[in-house]
């Protein structure tokens, strides 16, 4: 939900225009930040009542659009605030973020980033695809048998270790009696 409605923004802008365009009087009267009131007035003067509209959806910009905006700022033709008006962007903060990303990473910085948690990589290798001929069948069976043998060897080592530990415990308990 947005903080201010379109009608409230219009009321603030009308107050500003009715009072000889006195910015300090307006932002003090409504207890708003000076920059906020200035942005609303500028958008109203540039776009009319539509400039104060509350956006219900988040607009997604392509890397090409972002690059065009950034190049306007870098060339020195426009400031971030002026580019915001020229391209009808939501805020100049967005332009600053794009500029920072572009200066840091180049065009890659303007591409959308994947959202959310990354997918987990499998812990174990995937099973090979189903064999299509006799040789592949034999190779797959050989692979399975090796895996089974390795498992049985590990199991045998583990059982021997447990038996040694229990033998050691028994001898220690007999010696302590």
UniProtKB/TrEMBL annotation:
UniProt-listed InterPro entries: Homeodomain-like_sf (IPR009057), InsJ-like_HTH (IPR055247), IS150/IS1296_orfA-like (IPR052057), Trp_repressor/repl_initiator (IPR010921), WH-like_DNA-bd_sf (IPR036388)
Annotated ranges, domain Insertion element IS150 protein InsJ-like helix-turn-helix: 65-117
Region of interest: Disordered: 110-133
Xref: Pfam families: HTH_28 (PF13518)
Record-level Gene Ontology MF annotations: sequence-specific DNA binding
Entry's family note: Belongs to the IS150/IS1296 orfA family.
Protein name: Transposase
Native source organism of the sequence: Bisgaardia hudsonensis
